[in-house]
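Technical annex, item 7. During the second reporting period the consortium partners agreed on a shared format for inverse folding records so that results from different sites could be compared directly. Each record opens with the tokenized structure and is followed by the designed sequence. A conforming record, contributed by the partner at site C, is shown below for reference.
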């Protein structure tokens, strides 16, 4: 039988209502206890504190988004304040730029950027509660009118090979593929470090080549490191460095050859010790006129020369320096000469001269240092690029531009 509350007698209905209130009250107390958790001593319920709010996270990206004409030599930097950096990505097209987190917690790109290129940066960090915050940026690097490649030279005839050993007279030579008009900017971009440390100066041999030398010859064993940070640098007239470049080389033993044009002897010293004394014959002197009206002299020029190049055989003739008239007393036909060590661009060599019977007695050459075959071979086999040949007592001095005449001027005048 089914009953409704309206069909019960008042006493029965009241009893049922009271029973229902007891049951509901018990259920409500249970729910409150469950929500409150454990009770504090004495039966009081503990109330939990709300979680602390997240610390605001600030993500910074340099260059700023929308930046134009950004130097590709400057790194992309991502910083985070108030959180933990999780990732940073720099891309152009499908290529990713390498980068790394630095000790200070920032992220930096570790490879050079390119000219005239748009880059997209995406960075993410987490706040104090673990929530992720992201930021994006885009910028474009500058587009130069033209660029200059950078190379390193031992001299105008030879590249400087990284890691090679050179003589004590070898200057640092940085070459640019295009003329440089802002020389101060170029010099500022060049970093030279040596061990042991020395003071040095720049000298511009041309608009495309700058030399650097210390006050005195290098000490043997010196290590030289050169960096040219020209990427993004305006070298003048809109010419920018194509990219950064580095090299390094070492100075070997000290070899200095002293050529005395009065005694007709070449004495070779290695680390201050005389190791070879060679009879020689130097330039006979005098002038003549070349085919183009130029003045040609026949002295071995006085001053410190630097070894530029070596050739087992070299064809020599007066025509090589503009003298082509067979009736001229200084004219001579082509002849293959052995064991040739070049010391000037104008054509001075130390070489074998078996035809010259005045070695050690008279100066009869056209300007070269004539030696016996055995002596010429010894010097050829034992010298390095950058070794020094000092010519003394000649009436005509070596100009700074003829070969590596860097040491032919005082350090005070160097570069002026």
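Designed sequence (site C submission):
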């Amino acid at each position: 039988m089914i009953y409704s509350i309206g069909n019960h007698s008042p006493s029965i209905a009241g009893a049922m209502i009271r029973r229902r209130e007891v049951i509901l009250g018990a259920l409500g107390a249970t729910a409150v206890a469950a929500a409150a958790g454990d009770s504090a001593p004495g039966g009081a319920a503990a109330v939990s504190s709300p979680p602390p709010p997240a610390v605001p996270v600030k993500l910074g990206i340099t260059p700023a988004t929308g930046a134009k004409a950004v130097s590709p030599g400057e790194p992309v930097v991502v910083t985070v304040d108030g959180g933990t950096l999780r990732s940073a990505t720099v891309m152009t097209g499908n290529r990713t730029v390498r980068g790394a987190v630095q000790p200070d917690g920032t992220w930096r790109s570790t490879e050079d950027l390119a000219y005239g290129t748009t880059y997209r940066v995406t960075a993410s960090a987490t706040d104090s509660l673990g929530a992720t915050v992201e930021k994006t940026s885009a910028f474009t690097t500058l587009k130069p009118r033209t660029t200059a490649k950078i190379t390193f030279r031992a001299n105008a005839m030879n590249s400087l090979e990284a890691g090679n050993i050179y003589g004590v007279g070898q200057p640092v030579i940085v070459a640019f593929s295009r003329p440089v008009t802002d020389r101060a900017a170029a010099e500022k971009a060049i970093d030279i470090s040596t061990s042991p440390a020395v003071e040095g100066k720049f000298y511009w041999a041309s608009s495309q080549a700058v030399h650097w030398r210390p006050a005195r010859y290098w000490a043997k064993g010196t290590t030289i490191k050169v960096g040219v940070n020209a990427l993004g640098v305006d070298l003048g007239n809109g010419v920018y460095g194509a990219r950064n470049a580095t090299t390094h080389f070492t100075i070997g033993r000290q070899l200095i050859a002293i050529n005395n044009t009065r005694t007709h002897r070449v004495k070779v010293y290695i680390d201050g010790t005389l190791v070879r004394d060679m009879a020689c014959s130097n330039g006979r002197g005098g002038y003549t006129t070349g085919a183009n009206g130029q003045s040609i002299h026949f002295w071995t020029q006085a001053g410190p020369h630097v070894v530029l190049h070596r050739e087992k055989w070299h064809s020599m003739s007066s025509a090589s320096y503009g003298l082509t008239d067979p009736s001229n007393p200084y004219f001579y036909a082509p002849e293959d000469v052995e064991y040739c060590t070049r010391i000037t661009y104008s054509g001075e060599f130390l070489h074998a001269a078996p035809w010259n019977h005045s070695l050690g007695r008279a100066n009869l050459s056209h300007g070269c240092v004539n030696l016996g075959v055995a002596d010429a071979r010894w010097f050829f086999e034992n010298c390095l690029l950058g070794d020094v040949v000092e010519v003394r007592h000649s009436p005509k001095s070596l100009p700074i531009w003829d070969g590596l005449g860097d040491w032919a001027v005082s350090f005070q005048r160097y570069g002026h």
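The two ends are 124 Å apart (CA to CA). The longest helix spans residues 10-36. All partners now use this format for quarterly exchanges.
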